[in-house]
Hints:
Oligomer: heterodimer
Number of strands of chain B: 2
Order of helices and strands of chain A: HHHHHHHHHHHHHHHHHHHHH
Largest sheet of chain B: 2 strands, antiparallel
Strand content of chain B: under 5%
Amino acid sequence: MRTLAAGVEGSNPTLNIIIFAVFVLITLVIVFRASRNTKTASDYYAAGRAFNGPQNGIAISGDYLSAASFLGIAGAIAVYGYDGFLYSIGFLVAWLVALLLVAELLRNTGRFTMGDVLAFRMKQRPVRAAAAISTLIVSFFYLLAQMTGAGGLVALLLGVEGKAAQSVVIAIVGVIMIAYVLIGGMKGTTWVQIIKAALLVVGALVMTLWVLGKYGFNFSALLQGAVDKAGRAGETLLGPGKQYGKPGTSKLDFFSLGIALVLGTAGLPHVLMRFYTVPTARDARRSVVWAIVLIGVFYLFTLVLGYGAGALVGPDDIKGAPGGVNSAAPLLALNLGGPVLLGLVSAIAFATILAVVAGLTITASASFAHDVYANVFKKGKASTGSEVRVARWTAVVIGAVAILGGILANGQNVAFLVALAFAVAASANLPTILYSLFWKRFNTQGALWSIYGGLIVSIVLIVFSPAVSGKPVDAATGKSPSMLQGVDFHWFPLDNPGLVSIPVAFLLGWLGTVLSKERNSKKYAEMEVRALTGAGAEKAVQH
Amino acid sequence: MSTTDVESGDPPDTWERAQESAEFRQLRTRLRRFVFPMAVLFLAWYLLYVLLADYAHGFMSTKIAGNFTVGLLFGLLQFVSTFLITWLYVRYANRNLDPLAERIRDDIENPAGKEPR
Lengths: 543, 117
């Protein structure tokens, strides 16, 4: 433990800060240049629909490969071995739901937000309000995870465990992110995501080759290294069950997590909103293909990085480091290339957090301004100027909330927090999206029941899960793995609510629909024809 | 409201007539015939994998070559199947969906060759 602390202190904080500052400066310049044409709502929310498929695909992977992917999964594989791998597989396979069932149809029917599609053939105000609430809540969970990742990273880099110093840096991350969103709108945010995705994938590739090189490009030898380093129970890293293998509910929890991961992606509002930045459904399809390839390749890298961190740094040192499990990838970088590589990798991880947080902020602010302000309050009669102004102010408020939340949630496992966001998205959003795209009979009451039902059930189950309270104290750390220490009010046995909340939301959507007499076959005709053919869809803005 | 503006100012029943047309029905059938079975297939394959990883630890920890286990093989096969389905869908959509969708869209947006805006 001592040598490790010394090693992290041996990293050069000044160097880290310089590398990070260079990234921020370059991206800010690009954001400024990109923002010169941001005038209308379509510019601000959807970058004038002027990105092409590959660009948007790279930006999607930049939006999606969050701190949870890079820090959380690599850390989970390093410490828990095979069980960490499940996250990557779920996160990847989930894109098939988006590709086959959602992306193109959504691009053809909506303009800016998830609410556009959900409210298309329903009573506008209640459904838009519900969609906005769900967007804000899912984005908030996701934001928490990112800001927490930022805190962990700071702990590692500056060697400070003091909450105050970490809080200051979380606040700085938040302020920079707000600047991106305010100045650049969707166009600036997209460019930040593209740059970050390129850096992240290239950085991970270099480290992967480096790790494999150390083991003569023999993956089996790398696994042996991880097994040896882990000591007595090392062999268990190679198969499933180390994290979720304990008898009883832990196996069911794993299954629940698996379902939430695969169904969550296509319900994440910040992912859905990215499909509006391209001119046609065909470009939306192309962008998903690019995203699937980039994300898939990146997760293959994290498999190597995770086991590499296990072999070269060791699970005990990782768990003992400031930042805990999330620090596996940075520690691996330090082990491989010394302070310079640590600085570079940490800057990439910071960039990752910045880009994802900016994407979430613009999504949440667009949903509030477009769905709540323009359509619920102003009944669709708000001027574009006032709508964009509201969106900008909302971005500031959300940024402030994210900073506060990040400071409070500091220390939670990032991958786990993201998994919760996926569970809420899969419960509240996905059933409604699928019903409204494919089921003719679906109506307002069905939409409201499935959105609110999914939201309430998933959140209540999380609050009363062992993730929040009541896990026994871990002898090694002297703390309970639950979010709250010293209290126990849990009655739901699983950490992840997906297994229950997703089927319940589907059921409620069906029940609400059949119990209501409302039918809207005329609007459904319009929606279906537009969704499948792209007729009347929003075109790219010409500047 | 804003999403429902029909920019070309079509009479409201244009959509219903388009929806009833033989061409559109064919487009819908082609889309659903591909995406629904495929969605069931990849979800079943994924759930099978999750259940194996969850309840068949011994089987998944069996070593095939060196330290490479059945579990790692199954995990990597999930990557392979995801890439494969993506490729199949893009090929199918380019060949069987896009041309038909374009034809229907043109009919709606330019009735009798008239410019909509």
